Amino acid sequence: xxxxxxxxxxxxxxxxxxxxxxxxxxxxxxxxxxxxxxxxxxxxxxxxxxxxxxxxxxxxxxxxxxxxxxxxxxxxxxxxxxxxxxxxxxxxxxxxxxxxx
Amino acid sequence: xxxxxxxxxxxxxxxxxxxxxxxxxxxxxxxxxxxxxxxxxxxxxxxxxxxxxxxxxxxxxxxxxxxxxxxxxxxxxxxxxxxxxxxxxxxxxxxxxxxxx
Lengths: 101, 101
Fold this sequence. Notes:
The structure is a homodimer of 101-residue chains. In chain A, strands 1-3-2 form a three-stranded antiparallel sheet. Chain A has five helices and three strands; from the N terminus they run ααβαββαα. With 101 residues, chain A is of the alpha+beta class. The termini of chain A are far apart. Chain A has one domain (12-100): Winged helix-like DNA-binding domain superfamily/Winged helix DNA-binding domain (Arc Repressor Mutant, subunit A), CATH 1.10.10.10. At the A-B interface, helix 1 and helix 5 of A face helix 1 and helix 5 of B.
């Protein structure tokens, strides 16, 4: 695995409590709202909060990725963030709908 | 307010991220599952985890109460825990259904 290929949990490894924790922080929830409209580059993501330090943003992304909420994949020279919407809807029906409404 | 009357947030003060945080811990989520079947005395609650120290249990209850998830009210010589189901369903439609299913 190349160093830019980050690890993502498989759908059946995703824990409900980890997803709830990932979404329990206002800055992380805002990122999830942003990517719920479609994939975003890392550069675009967090645009509603431009004062966010890069290291803080990296940590928010790591929590969201490790909880199974987003995919963070290489895309050209940058990275692309995608909400794992279909997988999460299958594993936890109605959860994202109720949180992102 | 008597010392045994604990504070509870009003329904319109309840924050989604606080509710998600309260439910993001396996021990707290288990308590919520227990009270989702009906009010329980403090003594009955947490019965699925009898090894839980009393101080830990008190703290779990405090987080759930302060987030607006449960009511913790005096009941005779003990205390009674109630899930704020109707209020939460009104404020965050579908959320508890998706988490407790």
